[in-house]
Write a structure and sequence with these properties.
The protein is of the alpha/beta class. Helices cover 42% and strands 13% of the residues. It has one domain (3-161): Response regulator (Rossmann fold). Strands 2-1-3-4 form a 4-stranded parallel beta sheet. Strand 1, helix 1 and strand 2 (36-42) form a beta-alpha-beta unit.
Length: 163
């Protein structure tokens, strides 16, 4: 059974789709595609059915990532099917923990930058939505930096599952 990771931000048009595409590439490069399923969602439904923000698409495309995306809202009913739910900031972390129905579900929620040893105390990936191109590029840098540590953690989980 595949290991399932879902990235969650506010509207699922900026940070979480960016994290989804970056991490999916890391999974593919590691030869784990098929073993790890990656997707994303938002805590709110304002953008359900929309594509990613054009600035997200532009930054992803210019850095060699895929960018196909349709926004959706995270549902608490998804928890049983997910192994890891990755919040992009503390606000998302709180909202997701409120949606968790059991301690086991709450234990699956982590902040993305907690996987970046260089992140220090500030673990939020700031929302680039109200900024310009530079904020989207900074978001990508933070996501890329944390993705290596996240990949190592997922790889360890997969190894623990192997009999």
């Amino acid at each position: 059974m595949a290991y399932r990771v879902c990235f969650v931000c506010t509207g699922n048009i900026c940070r979480s789709p960016m994290a989804e595409h970056v991490f999916r590439r890391r999974v593919e490069e590691a030869g784990l595609d098929g073993l790890v399923v990656v997707d994303s969602a938002g805590t709110g439904g304002w953008h359900e059915g929309d594509g990613a923000d054009p600035r997200t698409v532009s930054v992803l495309d210019e850095n060699g990532y895929t960018s196909e995306h349709t926004a959706r809202r995270f549902r608490s009913s998804w928890f049983p099917a997910l192994d890891l739910v990755i919040a992009l900031d503390e606000g998302h972390l709180r909202e997701l923990r409120e949606l968790a129905r059991t301690p086991d579900e709450a234990a699956r929620i982590r902040l993305l930058r907690s996987y970046d040893p260089a992140a220090g105390a500030g673990l939020d990936v700031p929302d680039p939505y109200y900024g310009g191109r530079e904020e989207f590029e900074e978001c990508l840098e933070m996501v890329e930096a944390a993705s290596e540590g996240l990949l190592a953690a997922v790889r360890a989980e997969l190894e623990d599952r192997t009999p």
